[in-house]
C-alpha cells in the first residue's frame, strides 16, 4: 500500500509542473505586465525598459518561467498591480477566512445530509423521505447566490436575526464565548447557502448508498444471526455507506472554494473569493494567477488524499 | 429492467421485424409513465413558448431604458415595476427566458460536440491518443469551473454571447469526455463491434454507425443535466458581471439588481421573480433528465 501511495505522490509532480505551466501561460497571454499600470510621471519609458530588463521580462519565455517558478516555490507571487502589496501578504490575510467558510460549510453539509439520508433510507416513501427528496431537488436547482440573497432577505432584513455582512461585528470587542457566538452568527448563512447544492446532493447520495448496502448479503447474514437492528444499521450499514461519501469530500473542496467566489461576494465576506473577483475586475493578473495556482494545487492534493483515504478504509480496493 | 436489456439486444439484430419494440419506443413509453418527467417537459415547453412569444406577451422593449422612471413600483403599465435603469422588469423576465435558454442550450451543445468527439476518439483508439486526451482532462479538472471561466474572461477583455458560450464549452469539456470515453471503452469490447470490424468496416463507419447510436443514452441524459448546470452557471456568472453584458436581459444579470441593498430590501419584485424562473427551469430540466436516465439507461440508475 505504501508503494501505491508513494506512486500517487510521484505522479502528482508532473501534474503540478503542468499546472504551473498552464498558469504561467495564462499570465503571459494576459495583456500588460507589472509595469503597464505605472503612472508616476517621473518614471520615463527608458526607466521602465530598464526595470523590465531587470525583472527579466525580455528573456525567452522558458527562462522567465523558470525564474517565476523559483519565486513561487519560495512563496513569492509577485506584487499586486492594484494594491502595491506582495500578493502573498494579501493571500495570507484572506485564505484563513475562506478556509473557515469552506470548512464550516462542509461540516453543515455533513451534519445535515448524513442523518437525513439515513432516515430517508430507513423509511423510504415516508413523509420525511418525501420532504427530503423535495428539498434535494430544490437545493440542486437553486443557484447558491440566489439562496444567499433570499437568506439575507428573510433572516437579516425581515426577521433581523442574523448579520448580512462580514466575518465579525465591526468595532465590537468580543472575547471568548461571545466572540465565538458572533463568528458563528456571521458564518452560518454564507456557509449553509454555499453548501446548499452539496447538502442536497449528499443527501440523495447517502440515501441511495444506504439502500444499496442494506440489500447486500452480509446485512442479511447479520440479521439472520439475530443481531439487533441498531447494530446492523450503525455498525454494518452506515460504515460501508459512508466510505464513498467521505472520499467525495476530497473532490468537493475545490468546488466549494470556487463557489465561494460568488457567495463571498453576496455576503461581503473578506476571503479569497472576493479578492479574486476584484482582481478579475481590475485585471490584477498576479493575484489571479496566484489564486489559480493555489486552488488547482489544493484540488490536486484533495483528490490525492481522497484516493489514499479510499484505499485505507476500504480493503476491497486493489491498489497494485 | 432485465426485459429491456433483452429486447434491446434482440432489437438491434432484427430492427425491422419488431417495430413495436424498438429500444427508442420502449424508452419513450417508460418516459411517459414517469409523471414528474412529463410535468418537466410541459413546464419547459411553456418556458420555451414564453421565450418565443415574448414580443406578443408584453408591449415593452426589454432593453429600453426610461431614465425618468427608474426603480418604479409595480403598476398597471409595468407589472413588475422597472429596474435601476428604468427598464420594464416583466418584459426582461419574458425575454430573459429566451437568452437564458439559448445560452444554456448552445453551451450544452458545444460541450457535447467537443466531448463526444474527444471522448469517442479516446475510447475507440485507446493507447497514446487516449492517454494524451485523458491527462489533459485530468489537468483541466484541477481548475474549478468558475475560476477558469473568470480567468479566461479576464484575459479576453471583451465578451459577447458567442465568446461567452464558447468559453463555457471550452472549460467544461473534460466531464462529458470522460463519460463518453467510458461508454466507448465498454462498447469496444462487444461482439457486434468485432463483427463490424471483421467485415471491413472503417473506423469512421464503426464509430458513427455502430458505437455512437449505442452511446446515445448516456449522451442524451448527460446533455440534459448539463444544460441545467449551464443555466445555473450562466446566472452565477452574469450575476457577478462576467456573463452576458447589459442591456441584454438574462435572469442572471437581472439578479445583479439585488446587489444593491435598497433593491434587496424594498423592491423584492425586482429580484425574486428571475430567481424563481431559474429554479423552475432547472427543476423541469432535472426532472426530464432523471426521467430520461430511467428510460434510456437502466444500468446508470442507482437503487
From TrEMBL, chain A:
Keywords: Cell membrane, Membrane, Transmembrane, Transmembrane helix, Transport. Its main location: membrane. It is found in: Cell membrane. Residues 95-306 form the ABC transmembrane type-1 domain. One of its GO terms (cellular component) is plasma membrane. The chain crosses the membrane at residues 9-27, 99-121, 133-155, 187-205, 242-267, 287-313. GO terms for biological process: transmembrane transport. It comes from the Bacteria. Pfam families: BPD_transp_1, BPD_transp_1_N. Belongs to the binding-protein-dependent transport system permease family. This is Peptide permease. It comes from Vulcanibacillus modesticaldus.
From TrEMBL, chain B:
GO terms for biological process: transmembrane transport. It is a multi-pass membrane protein. Residues 97-289 form the ABC transmembrane type-1 domain. The chain crosses the membrane at residues 36-57, 99-124, 136-155, 161-180, 219-244, 269-292. InterPro entries: BP-dependent_transpt_permease, MetI-like, MetI-like_sf, Oligopeptide_permease_AppC, OppC_N. Belongs to the binding-protein-dependent transport system permease family. GO terms for cellular component: plasma membrane. Keywords: Cell membrane, Membrane, Transmembrane, Transmembrane helix, Transport. It is found in: Cell membrane. It comes from the Bacteria. This is Peptide ABC transporter permease.
Amino acid at each position: 500500500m505504501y508503494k501505491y501511495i508513494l506512486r500517487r505522490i510521484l505522479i502528482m509532480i508532473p501534474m503540478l509542473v503542468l499546472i504551473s505551466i498552464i498558469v504561467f501561460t495564462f499570465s503571459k497571454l494576459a495583456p500588460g505586465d507589472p509595469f503597464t499600470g505605472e503612472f508616476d510621471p517621473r518614471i520615463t519609458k527608458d526607466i521602465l525598459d530598464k526595470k523590465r530588463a531587470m525583472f527579466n521580462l525580455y528573456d525567452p519565455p522558458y527562462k522567465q518561467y523558470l525564474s517565476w517558478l523559483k519565486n513561487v516555490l519560495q512563496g513569492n507571487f509577485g506584487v499586486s498591480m492594484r494594491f502595491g502589496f506582495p500578493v502573498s501578504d494579501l493571500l495570507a490575510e484572506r485564505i484563513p477566512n475562506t478556509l473557515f467558510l469552506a470548512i464550516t460549510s462542509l461540516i453543515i453539509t455533513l451534519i445535515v445530509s448524513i442523518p437525513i439520508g439515513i432516515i430517508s433510507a430507513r423509511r423510504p416513501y415516508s413523509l420525511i423521505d418525501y420532504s427530503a427528496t423535495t428539498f434535494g431537488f430544490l437545493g440542486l436547482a437553486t443557484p447558491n447566490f440566489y439562496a444567499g440573497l433570499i437568506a439575507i432577505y428573510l433572516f437579516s432584513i425581515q426577521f433581523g436575526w442574523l448579520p448580512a455582512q462580514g466575518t465579525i461585528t465591526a468595532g465590537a470587542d468580543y472575547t471568548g464565548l461571545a466572540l465565538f457566538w458572533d463568528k458563528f452568527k456571521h458564518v452560518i448563512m454564507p456557509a449553509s447557502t454555499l453548501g446548499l447544492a452539496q447538502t442536497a446532493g449528499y443527501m440523495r447520495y447517502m440515501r441511495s448508498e444506504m439502500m444499496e448496502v442494506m440489500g447486500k448479503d452480509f446485512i442479511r447474514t447479520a440479521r439472520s444471526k439475530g443481531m439487533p437492528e441498531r447494530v446492523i444499521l450503525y455498525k454494518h450499514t452506515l460504515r460501508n455507506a459512508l466510505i464513498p461519501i467521505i472520499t467525495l469530500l476530497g473532490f468537493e473542496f475545490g468546488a466549494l472554494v470556487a463557489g465561494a467566489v460568488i457567495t463571498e461576494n453576496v455576503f461581503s465576506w473578506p476571503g479569497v473569493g472576493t479578492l479574486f473577483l476584484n482582481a478579475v475586475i481590475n485585471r490584477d493578473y498576479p493575484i489571479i494567477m496566484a489564486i489559480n495556482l493555489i486552488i488547482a494545487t489544493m484540488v490536486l492534493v484533495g483528490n490525492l488524499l481522497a484516493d489514499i483515504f479510499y484505499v485505507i478504509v476500504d480493503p476491497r480496493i486493489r491498489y497494485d | 429492467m432485465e426485459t429491456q436489456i433483452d429486447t434491446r439486444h434482440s432489437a438491434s439484430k432484427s430492427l425491422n421485424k419488431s417495430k413495436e419494440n424498438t429500444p427508442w419506443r420502449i424508452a419513450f413509453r417508460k418516459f411517459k409513465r414517469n409523471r414528474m418527467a412529463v410535468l418537466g417537459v410541459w413546464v419547459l415547453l411553456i418556458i420555451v413558448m414564453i421565450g418565443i412569444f415574448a414580443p406578443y406577451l408584453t408591449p415593452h422593449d426589454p432593453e429600453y431604458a426610461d431614465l425618468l422612471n427608474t426603480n418604479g413600483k409595480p403598476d398597471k403599465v409595468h407589472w413588475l415595476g422597472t429596474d435601476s435603469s428604468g427598464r420594464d422588469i416583466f418584459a426582461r423576465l419574458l425575454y430573459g427566458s429566451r437568452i437564458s435558454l439559448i445560452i444554456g442550450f448552445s453551451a450544452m451543445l458545444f460541450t457535447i460536440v467537443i466531448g463526444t468527439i474527444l471522448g469517442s476518439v479516446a475510447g475507440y483508439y485507446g493507447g497514446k491518443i487516449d492517454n494524451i486526451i485523458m491527462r489533459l482532462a485530468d489537468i483541466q479538472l484541477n481548475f474549478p469551473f468558475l475560476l477558469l471561466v473568470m480567468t479566461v474572461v479576464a484575459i479576453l477583455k471583451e465578451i459577447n454571447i458567442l465568446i461567452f458560450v464558447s468559453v463555457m464549452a471550452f472549460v467544461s469539456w473534460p466531464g462529458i469526455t470522460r463519460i463518453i470515453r467510458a461508454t466507448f471503452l465498454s462498447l469496444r469490447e462487444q461482439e457486434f463491434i468485432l463483427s463490424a470490424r471483421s467485415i471491413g468496416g472503417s473506423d469512421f463507419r464503426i464509430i458513427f454507425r455502430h458505437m455512437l447510436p449505442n452511446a446515445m443514452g448516456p449522451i442524451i441524459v448527460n446533455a440534459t443535466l448539463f444544460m441545467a448546470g449551464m443555466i445555473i452557471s450562466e446566472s452565477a456568472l452574469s450575476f457577478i458581471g462576467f456573463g452576458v453584458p447589459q442591456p441584454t436581459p438574462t435572469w442572471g444579470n437581472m439578479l445583479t439588481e439585488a446587489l444593491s441593498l435598497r433593491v434587496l430590501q424594498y423592491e423584492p419584485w425586482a429580484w425574486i421573480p428571475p430567481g424563481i424562473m431559474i429554479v423552475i427551469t432547472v427543476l423541469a430540466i432535472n426532472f426530464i433528465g432523471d426521467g430520461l436516465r430511467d428510460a434510456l439507461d437502466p444500468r446508470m440508475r442507482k437503487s
